[in-house]
Amino acid sequence: MNAVAVEGVWKYYGDFPALRGINLEVAPGACLALLGRNGAGKTTLLRIIAGFSRPGRGSVRIEGVDAREAATRSRIGVLGHGISLYDELSALENLALFGRLYNLPDPKKAALEWLERTGLERVRNGLVREFSRGMRQRLAVARAFLHNPPVLLLDEPFTALDDRAIAVLQTLLREALQRGSTILMSTHQLREALELATHVALLSRGRLAHHGERTPEMLADPGWLYTHYGEA
Amino acid sequence: MTGFLRQTLVIAHKDLRAELRTKEAINASFSFALVILLLFSFAFDPSAEELRLISGGLLWIVFAFAGALILNRSFARELPNDCLDALVGSPVSRAALLLGKSLANFALLMAVEFVCFPVFGIFYNVRWTTQFWPLMLVLALGTWGLTIVGTMFSALTVNIRLREVMLPLLVYPLMIPGLMAAMQLSSHLIAGNPLAGDILVWLRLLVAFDVIFTALALALIETVLVG
Predict the structure, then answer these.
(1) Which of A170, A218, B35, B202 sits a CA distance of 20 to 30 A from B144?
(2) What's the count of helices (H) and strands (E) in chain A, helices before strands?
(3) Which value does ipTM take for this structure?
(4) Minimal-distance CA residue of chain A relative to B83
């Protein structure tokens, strides 16, 4: 059974088809880099897979179950464009809140562990609105990983991170892959993504232009995929 | 059921904590309610008989408008940083999400109303405590009707640019039966009459309104949030 199965997904914004018949399968334990120019449909596809948005046509299944079932939602970790954290709550309160929402046995302990792992334990009682952009992004990473989800959906996860934070995120992603988690990651930072990816999918104007294993050519020249399969 | 209740309380607690830190909605709502009560008292100076007739209407109009300020913030609070996505993407039942937010709004609006009653009593020279507990029952039932309908429409209008205008436009027409019942009952009780006889028809209407709209809101929230 595939970890993620997208079948014939179309999505319209008004009359404009943002996604045109996407078929995509991701095996358990794979790391898929979802690439494409701005407006290609990457975020729309990730939002549909995460269950935030309903496709116009087609279906999405996570580990064989409808993506919008409550049981499925607890098996997904999402890191989107927004950090999805409350500015008026502290870092610890935010993570403990999501720990409770995900029914973790000891939400506060899990929150403290992840604050330490992301280097934010010193500011655990600081309000999120007082954090720098990089700190907010690290806290968002902690929120997405908090419940150790088997499927991770990451929308441009390296954006706004400094070198140290990128290294922390890459370590966390490698650990997740070693645990057997499945990762779907959209990004414009090709080098960082391709270092981790086992598979690559390229979206072009709402269509799946390419889907396959990551090859040595891609790693040597991150622009190779766009040259061969993308738009001019 | 325990899990559902726990999720509901987690959401309610989160909303109350966030609101009490910023005090954005409750300060605006308090100020608005007090100003309207004071302005009405200076503008009309009603006699005891006129007051007996209009007290319920006056109070519930103030509560409804002050409540809109709280209700508007309910889902709008989730927009910065895309927090609504995180809530919708979590395993929390959407019905628990709505109920938790409604409970938080209910607590905030009740707090505003508790302050309004003594102010009303002083400025309009009314002994409103004669039927205190029946009046509290009506207050709770009316406020629940307002918050469950208002919170539902707060979710519906959260992505609309003119949501501050749209929310009252959508909520008030639907609230007419509930508000009418609450107004009639409040006027009756503030005048010192007991909750008995013909007036019970309005109480039944208010209870039915709450039950029907709570059930409808819980059934429809999934469609409203995810489409």
Answers:
(1) B35
(2) 9, 10
(3) 0.88
(4) A84
> What was the pLDDT predicted at A230?
65
Strands of the A16-26 sheet, one edge to the other: A16-26, A4-13, A57-62, A65-66
Question: CB-based contact (8 Å) between B22 and chain A?
Answer: yes
Distance, CA of B94 to CA of B226 (rounded, Å): 10
Per residue in A41-53, is it b (16+ CB within 10 Å) or e — as a string? bbbbbbbbbbbbb
Contact B76/B22 with Cβ under 8 angstroms?
no
Six-digit token string for B43: 């503008």
Residue B210 DSSP SS3: helix
In this prediction, residue B1 carries a pLDDT of 59
Measured in whole angstroms, the distance separating CA A152 from the mean position of its chain's CA atoms is: 5
DSSP H or E stretch at residue A71: helix A70-73
**Which residue of B7, B22, B89 is in closest CB contact with A73?**
B89
Give B83's contacts in chain A (Cβ within 8 Å).
82, 84-86
pLDDT at res. A232: 47
A72 backbone dihedrals φ, ψ, rounded to 5° = -70, -40
Residues of A with Cβ-Cβ distance to B91 under 8 angstroms: 70-71, 73-74, 101-103
Interchain proximity B89–A98, CB inside 8 Å: no
Q: Report the C-alpha gap between A87 and B79 in whole angstroms.
A: 11
Task: Quote the pTM value.
Answer: 0.90
Sequence-distant (6+) residues with CB within 8 A of A141 are: A79, A118, A157, A165, A168, A169, A172
Q: Is A65 left (phi over 0), alpha (psi -120 to 50) or beta?
A: beta
Indicate if the alpha-carbon torsion angle B38, B39, B40, B43 is positive or negative.
positive
Token readout for B70 is: 């709280």
Residues 39-68 of A with CB under 8 A from B: 47, 50-54, 68
Kindly state whether B97 is in contact with chain A, defined as any CB-CB distance less than 8 angstroms. no
> Hey, how many other C-beta atoms are within 10 angstroms of the C-beta on A26?
24
Task: Give me the pLDDT at residue A164, please.
Answer: 78
What pLDDT shows up at residue B226?
A: 81
pLDDT of res. B160: 86
For chain A, say whether B23 makes contact (Cβ under 8 Å).
Answer: no
Residue numbers of chain A with a pLDDT score lower than 70: 230-232
Indicate the burial class of B108 (C-beta count within 10 angstroms; 0-12, 13-18, 19 or more): buried
